[in-house]
Design goal:
about 270 residues; alpha/beta; 3-stranded antiparallel beta sheet; binds adenosine-5'-diphosphate; binds magnesium ion
Length: about 270
């Protein structure tokens, strides 16, 4: 036990939000999905996990979120900081955005964003203020009374993001959140997400299979190998901040995309293009 406490303090002192050591996951059907994986993510970092379909990206996020247990290895998520945030507990240190917005169709945008606060039994008055903040942060202040069926795909994803942010989590896990959106909407959400990250300085772990998206968004692109997913490359993307559309069309961006693509290529060798 003493040893555990020491390593936990060590992780925190090093400014780490998440630390994985020798993490593997084998599902009950015998599929070895992941690992062994060693990964450190610093507080406030924006990291993308990039890899081919089926390499274990979603599995990795689910393990970090505590939605599933690793088969072996150790996962540490830094304890919540001292700030008092009523309406949340340890379990809400993490916000999760799924590929599908998964909104409840029978309630309004406000009702959907309220859900995590309701589950945490947050006081009503405080909950309403938090919902308003979360909706404003994703540009949906005027849509609180709308129903999911009235919203575009991009707006539904914004609601999903607001729902993840409403408990003010330290870490935001995003699993291919923009994959189903058209390109213009995706670019817009990319920019809005970067603005949010700059403002809130949360740790973001963003899963994507798009090289272009990973380079555009993240400070670090962690390239995973084919299943069982391990780390094939860990590439730091350095450019002038804040990033905007001019980065997307710059020579530097193209060069990073080339480098990341090259790191990803071995994961696809021997696989059918279909
Ligand atoms: P990715 O998100 O990178 O596409 P996943 O983490 O979803 O990959 O899945 C990794 C591998 O584990 C895949 O081969 C997938 O079929 C398998 N897998 C995922 N979830 C389960 C499960 N609950 N039971 C059995 N196999 C699973
Ligand atoms: Mg997945």
């Amino acid at each position: 036990m003493a040893e555990e406490r020491v390593s936990e303090a060590g992780a925190d002192a090093a400014g780490l939000a998440v630390r994985l050591r020798g993490v593997t996951k084998t599902y009950d059907n015998g599929v070895m999905a992941l690992g062994p994986l060693d990964l450190d993510i610093r507080r406030g970092e924006f990291v993308s996990l990039l890899g081919p379909s089926g390499c274990g990206k979603s599995t990795a996020l689910r393990l970090i979120a505590g939605l599933a247990a690793p088969t072996s290895g150790e996962i540490r998520v830094s304890p919540v900081t001292q700030r008092t945030r009523p309406g949340r507990d340890q379990g809400q240190a993490i916000g999760f955005v799924f590929q599908e917005p998964t909104l409840m169709p029978w309630t309004s945008v406000r009702g959907n964003v309220r859900l995590p606060l309701k589950l945490a039994h947050a006081p009503a008055a405080e909950a309403e203020a938090r919902i308003a903040d979360a909706l404003a942060s994703v540009g949906l202040a005027d849509f609180a009374e709308s129903y999911p069926r009235e919203l575009s795909g991009g707006m539904k994803m914004r609601v999903s993001l607001a729902r993840a942010l409403v408990t003010d989590p330290d870490i935001l896990l995003m699993d291919e959140p923009f994959a189903a959106l058209d390109e213009i909407t995706r670019f817009r959400l990319n920019n809005d997400l970067l603005a949010l990250w700059r403002g809130l300085r949360k740790t973001i772990i963003f899963v994507t299979h798009s090289v272009f998206e990973s380079v555009y968004l993240s400070q670090r692109v962690v390239v995973m190998t084919a299943r069982p997913g391990r780390i094939g490359a860990d590439i730091r993307v350095e450019t002038d901040e804040p990033r905007g559309e001019e980065f997307r069309t710059s020579a530097r961006y193209v060069e990073y995309c080339r480098e990341v693509s090259a790191a990803l290529a071995p994961s696809y060798s021997g696989r059918s293009a279909l």
